[in-house]
TrEMBL record:
<keyword id="KW-0813">Transport</keyword>
<comment type="similarity">
    <text>Belongs to the ABC transporter superfamily.</text>
</comment>
<dbReference type="InterPro" id="IPR027417">
    <property type="entry name" value="P-loop_NTPase"/>
</dbReference>
<dbReference type="GO" id="GO:0005524">
    <property type="term" value="F:ATP binding"/>
</dbReference>
<dbReference type="Pfam" id="PF00005">
    <property type="entry name" value="ABC_tran"/>
</dbReference>
<dbReference type="InterPro" id="IPR017871">
    <property type="entry name" value="ABC_transporter-like_CS"/>
</dbReference>
<dbReference type="InterPro" id="IPR003439">
    <property type="entry name" value="ABC_transporter-like_ATP-bd"/>
</dbReference>
<keyword id="KW-0547">Nucleotide-binding</keyword>
<protein>
    <submittedName>
        <fullName>ABC transporter ATP-binding protein</fullName>
    </submittedName>
</protein>
<dbReference type="InterPro" id="IPR003593">
    <property type="entry name" value="AAA+_ATPase"/>
</dbReference>
<dbReference type="InterPro" id="IPR013563">
    <property type="entry name" value="Oligopep_ABC_C"/>
</dbReference>
<keyword id="KW-0067">ATP-binding</keyword>
<dbReference type="Pfam" id="PF08352">
    <property type="entry name" value="oligo_HPY"/>
</dbReference>
<feature type="domain" description="ABC transporter">
    <location>
        <begin position="4"/>
        <end position="253"/>
    </location>
</feature>
<keyword id="KW-0614">Plasmid</keyword>
<dbReference type="InterPro" id="IPR050319">
    <property type="entry name" value="ABC_transp_ATP-bind"/>
</dbReference>
Amino acid sequence: MTLLRLNAVSRRYPIGAQVFGQKNFLTAVDAVSLEVRKGQTTGVVGESGCGKSTTGRIALGLEQADGGQVLFEGIPLPQADTKDWRAKRQRMQLVFQDTLAALDRRMTVGDLIAEPLIIHRIGKARDHAQRVLELLEAVGLSRHHQALYPHQLSGGQRQRVVLARALAPNPSLLVCDEPVSALDVSVQAQIVNLLMDLQREHGLGILFISHDLRIVRHVSDRIVVMYLGRVVEEGRADAVIDRPAHPYTRALVSALPRLPGGFEHYVPLPGEPPSPADRPQGCPFHPRCALAKDICRNSEPPLLPTEPERQVACHLVTD
């Protein structure tokens, strides 16, 4: 069952002053399509500034798409800040990267976890205390943590509190925006394993956004690779990692720690991504691609299927 589907969503932001009646725009997300299925994880990976986080916010209705459509459980997502949207958002929750910014430092852990229950009017007030204890146990925290404040917790413990808050309304979809990037490697493993355990227990669909392909490979059933606001490759996680087709994906995979049977040679990725406000003509990746040809410089490749459940946007592959 498909929980979330994005159909060619786009998001542009006006930049600079209007000159001769003409506005300039920065295209953060450009015709991105993806889906998240019940009980599965779709990973979105790419360098900083590629539009990953904006795509996640569009999926939740926190950013309004300029084009395309967001479907949740087969129904178009209602307009933000409406009654229908708030009812949907109860079942679609965001797991933040910056836990100190996400948690009100004036509130105790118990009050923070109970807050979504109050906002969405779930259960009776007298039952909230028991629900808080259940959620603390579910994320691996103890009863005594409910009396503490965010600054009294470690980074890993704060991320567990953020998870408990997200789980409080019984969502069917979690959008995780770089949920472990600020944590130590050992703590990252704990949080990732906790997410996967919670997914199995509750049948959650997860949209997992990260720049770290190592973690995305571990958690994902499908992987979406983004570059400069566009999807350049999408498919089953094992196919994308074991047989990357797009030159950008090959460079990302080659940078992973060497494993038996893995890539033998590192594929260099020179330079920085171009500015989204000044996109190159043709394929957006061609200025950094050692294989680029004239067609790459003059024509932007469409995202086309190359095998069952696999799509690539590259002239060299689809031709």
